[in-house]
Amino acid sequence: MIRRKIALHGMTSSPDIESWIEKIPTALEKQIERPDESAIIDIDIRHLAHQASGKKYFVEATFVSGKISLHAESENENLPSAIEAVRDEIVTVFVSNKKRRERFIRKGGRAIKDFVKGFYGKKNR
Prior knowledge:
2 helices, 48% helix
């Protein structure tokens, strides 16, 4: 179960916003094999009023679990689109890191296996 910290700056909470925000931890929980009680996601949503570009929403998410720390942010005129962009980015980064770790573990295993084969594969004469 991922603990959630949600901060809304310059806006009030509504059921629609809560349901959109809930999609981020749900997507991450699908990717985690083992439940981690120390996992926490910090979501900040700001309503920005730029003079040149008009009103925009800035969504920022930080996921921390053990040694893993991931960060994603998005700025968009539409709040649901900004939340979906952050969700997609943080899940993409999580999956990428997961595949990278697995690749290094397999690479290390192959190196050890080759070493052992080389050591025992030689015939003593």
